[in-house]
Structures
1.
Amino acid sequence: MSAQVLLEFSVVDAFYGRAQVLHGVSFSVRAGERVALLGRNGAGKTTVVNTFLGIAACRSGSLSVGGAPLPRPRHFDAARRGVSVVPQGRRILPNLTVRENLLLGAASGRVGPWNVERVFEMFPILRERAANPGTALSGGQQQMLAIGRALMSNPSLLVLDEPSEGLAPIVVDELGDTLNRLATEGTSVLLIEQNIGFVRQVAERAYLLSKGSVVAEGKLDDMAADSLREHVAV
């Protein structure tokens, strides 16, 4: 019996107003998988996230979240169905403490193993800085906070949009270790990235996005080197 499909796009055309950004995009992530969506800036990667969050409009095709069709996505539907997003730029709220930022992630009401204490166990520095403003943290610590906040919704699938952006290489390596640990503990991962080195550390297979269309898919090791050089930062 195949694993549950946690997120699936089937020939999706997505728009902002009249501007079409995604053209017939199809991909899926199943329970237990670590998948990457690769592409350069402007390829449409963030629009994939915005489509299942209801920010971009799906005008053709279909998508499912949490194993069920989602014909009219709203921003809170994904989290309630077990798909949690770590957004590009992290979006830490400046007027809230580290602890308060984490507690925002529990708003979906999903029951599961993740709570503030468990997040602190995974990221001890957040416990030390719990009463500090979230934006007083370093870039790497803010990424830990963004991941912890997403885990507070007890997701089946964690979607990370450009998580390596602006981070030092050693911090990126630590982030990869964290994502692999989460996957081992049962949280599937969709990594939306253009840093192929980081992706190779985490993902088992990938979809390559260019100009709003999927131009290749499969195991990373099987993808043509020329294609990767053309469409991502190798």
2.
Amino acid sequence: MKMTLAEQPVWQVIFVPDSPTASLFFTLGLLWILYPPRSIIIKQIGHVIQALAVVTSVKYGVWAVSIIFAGWMQGGTQHWQDWMLIASHSAMAIEALIYVRFFGFRWAALVVAGLWTLLNDTMDYTYDIYPWLPASLYDHVDGVRNFTFGLTLVSILCAWLALRQAKRT
């Protein structure tokens, strides 16, 4: 984020902290469950946040793990922190799919969450504010971009399928 603030317009900062934002959405989504609001409008906002929690947690959880492994496959060096990131981001994706059954969002909130996440991808790769990449992947940014957009679509589908399954049980 520091680099974005130094080199890009300040309005782009909202698109920078991808994994931390996913964790924030997840935390807020849990708070909406623990402390349900009375207002219909606030409930609807909460549903969008819950949908964002699932879509972005699955996406950035899988994305981070995939990028670390892809970096290694391209000759990047392994660091002990990579294993911590693999564990934490894998858990992030899994917990979102486990908790989806407790969230109250429906397809409309999921559409909003999906559109926001696709907008975020567009901003990342249009203005070069995408998340950190291993140096070994800088020659493959176009492939990373395509993978990222595809993963967003898969994450939306996973959220929809998990929600659908949760509502059946």
3.
Amino acid sequence: MKDIKKIVLTGGPCAGKTTALVRIIEHFSSLGFKVFTIPEVPTLFTQAGMDYLTDNKGFFYEGEKATLEIQLALEDRFMRMAEQCTEPTILVCDRGTMDISAYMNAELWEDITSAVGTSTAELRARYDAVLHLVSAADGAEQFYTTSNNASRNESADEKGLQIARMLDKKVIDAWTGHPHLRVINNHVDFNKKLNRVLKEISNVLALPQPIEEERKYIVKLHGDIPHAIVSEITQTYLVAEPGCEVRLRKRGWDGKYVYVHTTKKKISEYEQIETERQINNNLYQSLLQQADPYRQTIHKIRKSFIWKGQYFELDTYMKPINNLMVLETKGITADEAVKFPPFLEVEKDITGNVNYYNYNIALRG
């Protein structure tokens, strides 16, 4: 069966999705891909007369249910068309099904998904990757505008910025649990944000990518992290051929787990191919039999958060070592300054230090 990748492009208000979609079409079409783009259904509904701010509960329920049904139908129909294409094909959704849940309470969302005959887990599993573009309201306020979307309800004043930041985090929460959720930072140079989108899609397509080092720091945490998403990670390395790194990762949020098989293979000194696929628990348990006997399993707690438009992951290691807390930047380019939050104290820059690579931390002493 033809391997067609389906990718969600999402984000908070004024995140740059429209421009990113144009760049995606241009870039991957030039590489020989057929690119289908699924339009943003809530915008279509708003233009047709739907009022998502209505106080009429019955009207709201039917409108949101119809939004989900049409979203699913559009994706399914375009997938059928994609299966008939002779060239490699990708589907890019301007928002996906889980975005709908960010605008209602959990009980109503469960009612709607049940009525449609689906569930949150099934909806997340429909997509190969989710790319969340951070709203300009968080860290790039000077670029925030509502003038390019007539259906947007958030104003450009401070109150509107706060609403936009809140919506941004709600959308991330909605997709949390997807194994390939990537948060795309704001940058002073918007082209860097777009280039990160292209890079992440290229990874999904298993295209060769430059080997890049995310900046890492040993830190101490003072107090709480606002709006952090907490997950537990169990990471096991498997026996692999030279120059190839294969790992299993079990990641859980509130008692619910996803399982991911990842392979990284260097094809030159400067390039590698990374492939990532979600697997079920049975396959995960089976593959554990191939665990590398020279490496221990890593257990850590991850706190993911956005601070001033930049995305961070804070890992607290439990095994095979403890008392180690590592902050990793995500998508901050080499010429940009890291905006360290006040609740973190940097003790040491370990960027590029191979002793702190997970692959080496797992080595048996």
4.
Amino acid sequence: MADNIDKVKYLIIGNSAGGIGAAEAIREVDKTGSIAIVSDEPYPAYSRPLISKYLAEKCSLERMLYRPADFYEKNNIKALLGRKIARLDVDAHLVEMADGEKLGWQKLLVSTGGLPIIPPTKGIKSEGVFSFLTLDDAKAIDQYLKHASRVVVIGGGLIGVSVTEGLVKRGVDITIIEMKERILNVMLDEEASAMADKAVRKAGVKIVTNHTVAEISGEGGVSSVTLNDGTAIPCDMVVVAIGVVPRVELASGKLKTNRGIVVDRFMATSSPDVYACGDVAEAYDFIYGMNRVTPVWPNAYMGGRVAGFNMAGVSTEYRGGTAMNSLSYFGLDVASAGMVMPLDAGYEVLSARYGNIYRKVLLKDGFVVGMVFVGETEKSGIAYNLMKDQVKVDGFKKALIAREFGLASLPDELWRPRIEAPRREFVPPVAVKEPGEEVAVE
């Protein structure tokens, strides 16, 4: 490596949950080693789930920050924000920026996140068509609302419902187009999805299921969309919210990839000194017992911490994450984790409905492998931790869906230690292995 190339001990590509988790873990172990974080976004780390709040209320960046504005300075981190990496050379331990600048590293974390899925729909590149993944996306939509009063949202998943709530609060007319038979079909079962559908429609949103958008029409701006059955829906704006795919372009041909970058239980990739975490990585899912892409915030952060500890020389194993979601939109609180629908007849399904409260758990061989809570979701963390800790629940399984479910519903030997422990809803622990001991890092 040429002597005139700047070098850092730790290079982190990505400035969201995974990258921040890694930087914090590194600094717990190595107080002085040089760290650089590179991000093509120009902002300090912010909470992406809050971009719907920005759209609805124009909440300030300061309110959205994931860490204080002085986080980088206090942790002696070189923040290269608004910079894009064009090339990764894992053999030379080198990255090249889009502007030609090169940066060397000893240990690398790829936490580049995901990219929005953009279908090859006719007219998809028209003015007035947006995605909804970053703060800049929310800002662009906000600006275009000056010219729009009718919006079509393509996709009725978590991203689609999130942007819809923000747009409802801006007073525009909205139609959701969902290709499957129900909204939120990945994170919810049929019962919970129907409850969400009712809440969204009550807010004045129109929902069209079992259809796709075949064409986006308009000259000088969107004027309508045409569905696959020929139905035309007038609109001034289209938001594509189908989902995300791992952003693997830097790793392609250099690291082992499947759907995402494949990592082991230490978040290490196929190349020495290179780690990956977050939405870009295929990491261990403790429910399925295999590596999967689980693009959710807590998994990204905890995977980042595991990567950071290992980068700094502390052997640390990722116990695994799983699909998990918690949302509060349209007056409806929902939480789900693991499997929401049984894979076959070998699962036991327990569910109960109490007015606007719904609870469901999936069991396999006496263990919780999935859950859906609608309404009063504050107790969902108890069920999640039973699932995460692989507690056999045969003796009290019906209590999990009872109206009064809580810590006191558990056997005495389970609830007493839990009631004194810190709350850990939807935060999988990390096993930090030192000689002769194993401790949880929260």
